[in-house]
Specification:
By secondary structure, this protein is of the alpha+beta class. 38% of the residues lie in helices and 35% in strands. It has a four-stranded antiparallel sheet with strand order 2-3-1-4. A hairpin with a 5-residue loop joins strand 2 and strand 3.
Length: 88
């Protein structure tokens, strides 16, 4: 199991407003399945971040590519594997 950060860069502010309810519903469903570690918008309104919990980069990327913001091109996806550092 790993953590994968999906940066969702804003492309279209007006389209984003329309897509946002579907995006939230999609993430709520994944959250209920334990596939979301964290999520939320950037305070500068440049987009948002979703941290997926998945067995592989490919699985996390597939989930992120189904996000309505990505499908409907209101935001651009940038995926990175994220390593959590824990203090000893």
């Amino acid at each position: 199991m790993g953590y994968f950060a999906a940066f969702l860069h804003m492309l279209d502010v007006e389209k984003n407003k329309d897509v946002l309810p579907r995006h939230i519903q999609y993430l709520d469903e994944l959250d209920a399945k334990g596939k979301i570690f964290a999520r939320g918008p950037f305070t500068d309104k440049s987009g948002g971040l979703v941290v997926y919990v998945a067995d592989s980069f490919e699985e996390a990327n597939a989930l992120a590519l189904k996000d309505p913001h990505v499908v409907e091109e209101s935001r651009e996806l940038e995926m990175k594997e994220w390593k959590i550092l824990v203090k000893d």
